[in-house]
Amino acid sequence: MSNNNNYDISDSTDCETYINQFIQEFTIRSAEIGKGTIIKRALPSRQKRLVGAWCFLDHAGPVSFPAGDGLDVGPHPHIGLQTFTWMIEGTMMHTDSLGSKQLIRPKQVNLMTAGRGISHTEVAPDIETKMHAAQLWIALPDDKRNMEPKFEHYPKLPVVIKDQVEFTILVGDFLDMVSPVQVHTPLVGVDLTAQANTKTRIPLNPNFEYAFMALEGIAQVNGHELNADNMVVLETGLTEIEVELTEGHRVLLIGGDRLNHQFCCGGILLGVRCKICNKHEKIGSIMMPVLVKFLIIKGSVSKHLYCLSK
């Protein structure tokens, strides 16, 4: 383990104390999406806006419902980011303004790159009765913010078994495996599912900040309890961390390089940089119909909008 704080690690207690100075816990909140679907929203929050370029994290389920009463999120637009859906249980139909139509199944990823602008829907099939998924947004870097929109479906992802934990590499490289999912900043995303009661030490990139979220059950992250109501965040500087899991329990690990620019990524608000004063403006949902037409006519919102306060 590297020691860039000149901390003298003489035993396991000292090691744990050293690591704990990099760890924070934040409470996550509940929100409602679609027609009454309750989710846990970890990002963004007042305490933590971003983890690397990950700027949004919702956890939906696990939940059961009568056929026909599943998630129904109507048409809505995005710009300047990627939406990332990891399906754990159930199915969901994605459609978008590019003409894409894709059913996502368990252990698959849908990645939609909004770029200069795209609109999409997410609807559970009428016969579906279960849902468990994580949806995240990824902020695009400045040079990709206005790229052409596209949609990609990833039906197979690399899996590694270590210490009786199944690691599914969702994004980036981890444990010598590389995910095929295409992102535009250094990122990692991993699903950890315990096959038995176990402990494992996992390697970390000291240049990354990380966050853990419980998807099923609870876990211990270097002695910090991770549960349905909190997120455990690791600051940059660590090279490994210990995770303790109970059989059948599942957690999500995300991480990445800190962004070197601001990015507004709250709910369906859009972050736009003013070309005159270089400040960011928030464009609310009341502007959405105008923005969709503007995207079609002009090709890029951020090339033409200026501060609304001027």
Structure description:
This protein is mainly β. It has one domain: Jelly Rolls (Sandwich). Helices cover 6% and strands 48% of the residues. The chain contains two helices and 26 strands. The chain has a seven-stranded antiparallel beta sheet, with no helix packed on it. The chain is globular, with a radius of gyration of 20 Å. The chain starts with 11 loop residues before the first helix and ends in a 12-residue tail after the last helix. The N terminus and C terminus are likely disordered.
CATH homologous superfamily label: Jelly Rolls
How large is the share of residues in beta strands? Answer: over 45%
Shape: globular
How many β-strands, per DSSP? 26
Q: What's the CATH architecture?
A: Sandwich
Spatial separation of the terminal alpha carbons: 52 Å
Unreliable runs, pLDDT <50, ≥5 residues?
Answer: 1-11, 265-310
Q: What series of H and E elements makes up the topology?
A: HEEEEEEEEEEEEEEEEEEEEEEEEEEH
Task: Let me know the largest β-sheet.
Answer: 7 strands, antiparallel
**Structural class by helix and strand composition:** mainly beta
